[in-house]
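ARCHIVE CARD
CATEGORY: sequence design from structure
SOURCE FIELD: tokenized fold
FIELD CONTENT:
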């Protein structure tokens, strides 16, 4: 067990040693990186927003060739992202005025070049990120806020968040309060539906109770038809040849 722990500690020491060596042996030219950063700052600050937005209308291949000819180690996609970050920084801090001295810092991914910048409304810190091959990847504009402004923003965010929660809770309480009326409405609708089904006019019920007139086909009872035909002929004083009994219907009164 002690051998395993010792072996694990040795591996960790070697890993940390290689990491420290990679940081210390990373070579870069800070002057060259500053030239790339100044190129971006000068072009972004010197061009209006309309021209900066026009870069997004260029094809990615054409933009890559343009940046390659300009001697700036940056891809077209990263260049468009940096434009958005620059415009967002100006919206937050105001118009760009100037930039101070750069400070380089080595990271695991490459080099970060930072400097204090002066804007019209408030100062900010601009950081340029380079990868291990010294290609420019991104730009970050971080506005400098005072302690009072930070506390004010935190308070506003807290009030906004709590206000939203309370509004939602009040709305849910109102919805729950309305649920008690659902059984009452359901009962009313059910009663009104039953009343409509049972309601009817006075003439409908007698007609429904009256039996349908019974119709007798004379072909089914020829003797009855002959007797009735003879009775009609005797009553009319004629013979049975003058008419034909086609159907016999019983009257409702049953008096004959």
């Amino acid at each position: 067990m002690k051998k395993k722990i010792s072996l694990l500690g040795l591996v960790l020491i070697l890993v940390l040693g290689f990491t420290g060596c990679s940081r210390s042996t990373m070579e870069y030219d800070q002057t060259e990186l500053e030239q790339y950063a100044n190129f971006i700052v000068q072009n972004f600050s010197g061009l209006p927003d309309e021209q900066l937005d026009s870069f997004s209308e260029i094809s990615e291949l054409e933009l890559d060739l343009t940046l390659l000819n300009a001697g700036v180690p940056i891809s077209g996609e990263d260049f468009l992202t940096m434009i958005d970050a620059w415009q967002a920084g100006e919206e937050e801090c105001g118009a760009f005025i100037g930039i101070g001295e750069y400070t380089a810092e080595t990271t695991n991914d490459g080099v970060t070049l930072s400097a204090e910048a002066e804007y019209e409304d408030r100062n900010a810190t601009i950081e340029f990120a380079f990868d291990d091959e010294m290609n420019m990847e991104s730009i970050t504009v971080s506005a400098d806020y005072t302690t009072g402004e930070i506390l004010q923003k935190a308070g506003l965010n807290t009030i906004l968040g709590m206000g939203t929660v309370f509004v939602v809770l009040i709305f849910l309480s109102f919805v729950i309060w309305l649920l008690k009326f659902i059984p009452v409405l359901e009962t009313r609708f059910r009663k009104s539906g039953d009343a409509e089904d049972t309601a009817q006019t006075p003439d409908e019920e007698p007609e429904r109770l009256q039996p349908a007139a019974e119709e007798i086909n004379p072909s089914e009872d020829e003797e009855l038809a002959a007797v009735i035909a003879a009775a009609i002929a005797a009553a009319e004083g004629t013979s049975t040849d003058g008419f034909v009994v086609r159907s016999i219907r019983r009257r409702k009164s049953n008096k004959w």
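CARD ANNOTATION: Residues 184 and 190 are 10 Å apart (CA to CA). The longest strand covers residues 96-106.
SHELF: design records, drawer C
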